[in-house]
Specification:
Helices cover 70% and strands 0% of the residues. It is mainly alpha-helical. The protein has one domain. The model has no long low-confidence stretch (mean pLDDT 89). It comes from Streptomyces roseochromogenus subsp. oscitans DS 12.976. Keywords: Membrane, Transmembrane, Transmembrane helix. InterPro entries: ABC-2_transporter-like.
Length: 267
């Protein structure tokens, strides 16, 4: 793991130095990334200009969910979002160049074309979360305060696992980045809204099959003092770290299985 982290930092650092050689371009692309993601929340605010609640949740509460989801996903996208390009490498055979290098392939793929401009999404999620915190009706306790950073770190870990598992699937499908995006970008969009607006079958799916609900829905219900979806017990609010570790372990196994099945392009 130490070797992989070292390789990741070296490759990411190279791309950061390349990016900062054109600082005006970096500032503009980062602001563009920030503005594009902010439009999502502007749409939610426009929705609340017509209604007082969405699924029984007020605007600050929805903003709380939005900020947690956006911040956790933004960090995962910044760190490991390049995994979605793996399908292209598998299809054209350029993954072979990574296999012959004396560094873990996962670290190389994750740091490939590291895009510092993705900080715009992280900042946007943090700003929305910061806006919501003084506006939500919460009786803050030490346990709830401790749960806040735990939610962000665990959510980032869960999304990282989804990125890696999606990349492993691309070893078989070769070019299934849009399928992967449905669970990564689509997943964070889903979590921006309260679970009460979705069918119970969907809520069960993102709780027991692909556990995205542990990113924000379940711990946020504890912080906000709302009933748990599906009548789950109260301790599930504190399960995100365990879920994140389990998801990362399964994603690691999927990655190793996918890498072993790789047979190049044959050309």
């Amino acid at each position: 793991m130490r070797e992989g982290l070292r390789a990741y930092l070296m490759i990411a650092g190279m791309w950061v130095r390349s990016t900062m050689a054109y600082r005006a371009s970096f500032v503009m692309t980062t602001f563009g990334n920030f503005a594009a993601t902010m439009l999502d929340f502007v749409g939610i605010m426009l929705m609340f200009s017509r209604v007082n609640a969405l699924g029984g949740w007020s605007l600050p509460e929805v903003a709380f969910l939005y900020g947690l989801s956006g911040l956790a996903f933004g960090l995962a996208d910044l760190v490991i979002g390049s995994m979605e390009r793996l399908g292209r490498r598998v299809r054209d055979g350029t993954l072979d160049t990574l296999l012959v290098r004396p560094a873990p392939v996962l670290a190389q793929v994750a740091a490939d074309q590291f895009a510092l401009r993705r900080l715009g999404r992280v900042v946007q999620g943090a700003l929305v979360l910061g806006w919501s915190l003084p506006r939500v009706d919460v009786d803050w306790t030490p346990l709830k305060l401790l749960l806040m950073p735990v939610m962000v770190v665990s959510g980032c870990g869960i999304f990282c696992a989804v990125f890696v598992a999606g990349a492993a699937f691309q070893f078989l499908a070769q070019d299934a980045s849009e399928v992967q995006n449905a669970f990564t970008y689509g997943g964070t969009t889903l979590l921006q809204y309260p679970p009460t607006v979705f069918a119970k079958e969907l809520v069960r799916g993102v709780t027991f099959v692909l556990p995205l609900a542990f990113v924000n829905w379940l711990p946020a219900t504890y912080v906000l003092g709302r009933p748990y979806p599906l009548g789950l017990p109260g301790w599930v609010a504190f399960a995100p770290p365990l879920v994140a570790v389990g998801c990362c372990a399964l994603a690691g196994l999927s990655w190793r299985a996918g890498l072993r099945s790789y047979r190049s392009t044959g050309s």
